[in-house]
């Protein structure tokens, strides 16, 4: 049975939640083939945008990696060779990176898969040593929010969301990012549980303008449009179409059939479920355009 899962992880990933309440626990050589790990490696490969010309590679270390303050100041892309594969330091608090427990000594198959992912990721990067970079960078928080946005929403989302005068509000107790304000408007909030963003209406407007349809969209028919504007939830029977990349608990843009933005919310289903089901909540609406 585990070999079947291993061979079908790409298909299974469509039904994998964005995050879970439980940590990803190592249970043997098949853990590296979990759909959530496949998604992590795939999105980092396709969506990560380097900030510097030079890259430094580090061995696995205590998490969160950014706890080492000197790492954040290096003027280089800092990549950790974790058991899950290559992890840019800016993504060290997202699920399942921060919420995974793997032993220091991993099995041969996990090691082979890790090395394969790392080698593929390094192809277009210039790898250097510590003595070849400066330690004066002060923009780690900006790099972090842009990297998370790119990973979560798609390449280019970071620049689209945070184009302007950015104010980052942190928790007084933990020091972690909680809200991001851009040009005086609340764009996103960061969830403490999984390190991902919750979209605000202003953030939805920016991504709606940046990404062409059907990216991030859930399209509803005319019968539901007025209710969505008021902040009502989206039920499967009213969904006309949806982006194929949407996964359970993704942040989504709710639009009508003319691509007018109606609201933002969190998907409960993936596209296949939305199109096949006649009952059930498809999207939990966070904000409607009228409540903005």
What is the element layout, followed by pairings?
Blueprint lengths: L1 H6 L1 H4 L11 E2 L9 H13 L6 E6 L9 H5 L3 E6 L2 E4 L11 E2 L6 H14 L4 E2 L12 H14 L3 H5 L4 E5 L6 E6 L2 E6 L6 E3 L1 H10 L6 E4 L1 H8 L4 E2 L3 E4 L8 E5 L5 E7 L3 H6 L4 E8 L4
Parallel strand pairs: 1-5, 2-3, 2-6, 11-14
Antiparallel strand pairs: 3-4, 7-8, 8-9, 9-10, 11-13, 12-16, 14-15, 15-16
What does this entry look like structurally?
This protein has 292 residues and is an alpha/beta fold. The chain has three domains: 131 residues, no CATH class; 51 residues, Roll (Nuclear Transport Factor 2, Chain: A); 80 residues, PUA domain (Archaeosine Trna-guanine Transglycosylase, Chain: A, domain 4), CATH 2.30.130. Helices cover 29% and strands 25% of the residues. It is built from ten helices and 16 strands. The longest helix is centred in the middle third of the chain and has 14 residues. The mean pLDDT is 96.
The figure for the number of domains is: 3
If you average the pLDDT, what whole number results? 96
Low-confidence stretches: none
Globally, the shape reads globular
Radius of gyration: 20 Å
Q: What is the topology, as strand order, of the major beta sheet?
A: 12-16-15-14-11-13
DSSP summary, beta strand count: 16
Q: Helix-strand pattern, N to C?
A: HHEHEHEEEHEHHEEEEHEHEEEEHE
The computed structural class is: alpha/beta
User: How far apart lie the N and C ends?
Assistant: 48 Å
What's the story with the biggest beta sheet?
Answer: 6 strands, mixed
Portion of residues in helices?
Answer: 25-40%
Approximately what portion of the residues adopt beta-strand conformation? 15-25%
Helix tally equals: 10
